[in-house]
Amino acid sequence: PEHVGRTLFTTPDGTMESLVLQQGDCNGPATYQSLMNFIFTSHIGVFLEVYLDDIIIY
């Protein structure tokens, strides 16, 4: 994605870039919840509920 270049950090082993959501990001949980809601929009309330990393199927 277009944001990967903004996640660069340098270590003694070289320059690295992050391809996943980092823990500690100020909006990480809200971003993750929005993504889960987007992915499962048509199923939420029908047979599925999502809360952060918990998916309940009933």
TrEMBL record:
Name of the protein this chain belongs to: Reverse transcriptase domain-containing protein
Organism, scientific name: marine sediment metagenome
